[in-house]
Specification:
Layout: E1 2-4, H1 6-13, H2 20-33, E2 38-40, H3 42-52, H4 64-76, E3 80-82, H5 88-100, H6 107-118, E4 123-125, E5 139-141
Parallel strand pairs: 1-2, 1-4, 2-3, 4-5
Length: about 140
């Protein structure tokens, strides 16, 4: 099982991005070669919508309609495990932030890590591995490697 971080989704849909090929290859390998499923967390979907539609970040951002359709397609795909947060995530996030002295800019990363931990998902595809290395229960899968 491989969870996808927001940056991976951004590069996957953006054919002009420098990491599009690496991300596409990783996802293809996971699905076809390994017969694995991809894990998707609602938080990542919302972050994807926020980023991919931002004209300040992209010359040609996706329209909100196109981005919403992309999220719906992924969420409903048979090879995607939909991972919902449960009540343990709030306590686990607070625990991790306190234990590691994390500040406000680390909240969303910690929530994602806590959500994956509660669901017993140990692998995360991300290009921002440094953001997650502090969490020893997460194995970072960098598409570029």
């Amino acid at each position: 099982m491989l969870a996808l971080d927001t940056d991976v989704l951004i590069h996957w849909v953006n054919a002009d991005s420098e990491h599009h090929g690496a991300v596409s290859n990783l996802i293809r390998r996971e699905l076809s070669d390994h017969g694995s499923k991809l894990a998707l967390v609602p938080q990542v979907c919302w972050e994807f919508l926020h980023v991919i539609t931002d004209a300040r970040r992209f010359k040609q951002p996706l329209s909100m309609g196109a981005a919403l359709e992309r999220v719906r397609k992924w969420w409903d795909a048979p090879d995607v495990l939909r991972v919902a947060q449960d009540l343990r995530v709030v306590h686990r996030t607070v625990e991790l932030m306190q234990a590691d002295g994390l500040g406000r800019k680390r909240i969303l990363d910690t929530v994602l890590a806590s959500t994956l931990d509660a669901a017993r998902i140990r692998r995360l595809a991300t290009l921002n591995g440094a953001d997650y290395r502090i969490f020893d229960f997460i194995e970072i899968v960098d598409p570029r490697e």
